[in-house]
Amino acid sequence: MSGSLRVSGKNRQAEPFDERFDFWHGGGGQWRIERDGEVVYLAADEETVFVLIDGELQRQSGGRIRMAWVGSMFSPLDLLGENSLLRKMSSGMRASRGADRIDIGGRAAWLTELATSKGDGNIELAFDDATGLLVLLRSPSGGLLEVTNLAVHDQIDSERFTWDGPVADADPGKDDPLVQAAQRIEILSAISSALDRPQDLLQAVSGTRDGHQAKAAVIDLLGVTDTGADAVLAMQIRRFGSAEKGRIQAELTELRNYVADYSTTDR
């Protein structure tokens, strides 16, 4: 299966975002997800996972930590599986009417609506007739999730799910999923703090003479760890855009939920 996913709306800070992904999904946990032509998630199987983190593909542990570290409010990973967006929604909503047959991107689909438990409006959903895949979600607030260019393949070349470029290996002593999640939270929390105070950050760093002083200034200003300060100093300018902050907050929320679930179910 392959296709394109567009996600738009407003993030938790009421700031607009509009993102597009291209994706390929094969059997055995195979995934390839690209954003703006750049690979952000690659999985050859359940255990061989690469994620774009801070500008480089990093090898991640498979198994229990199959998380959507794509840095987006939603991604193609939310379309399928036991943790899919639809499964999360279904527990608190009910269908408000029957389904109507429609056409989406030249493919037959079924359109229906779900009533929210709060009664604040209906969510419009459409499912591809042949695959059952969620291909449209439109919320009362204007949020949109739409799958286009959907295609079903008998087989996708395995090379699509392999990577022969540079990869940053994870520390072999830090393969524990909970440790990885905690480290990522540490980094993202520091970056989030920096995004809240861009002018203060620039002023603090601009007056330093070298990297050591700059790092100390970041730690003093934001109250972050050494690791967090390194992440802040390595940030690209584009990350100060409003959409990036929404991505950071979404990833932080998912990681914290993961840690909470892991702590209660895996001990």
TrEMBL record:
What InterPro entries does the record point to? Topo_IIA_A_a_sf
Gene Ontology molecular function: ATP binding; DNA binding; DNA topoisomerase type II (double strand cut, ATP-hydrolyzing) activity
Give the top-rank taxon of the lineage listed in the UniProt record for this protein.
Bacteria
List the protein's name. Answer: DNA topoisomerase (ATP-hydrolyzing)
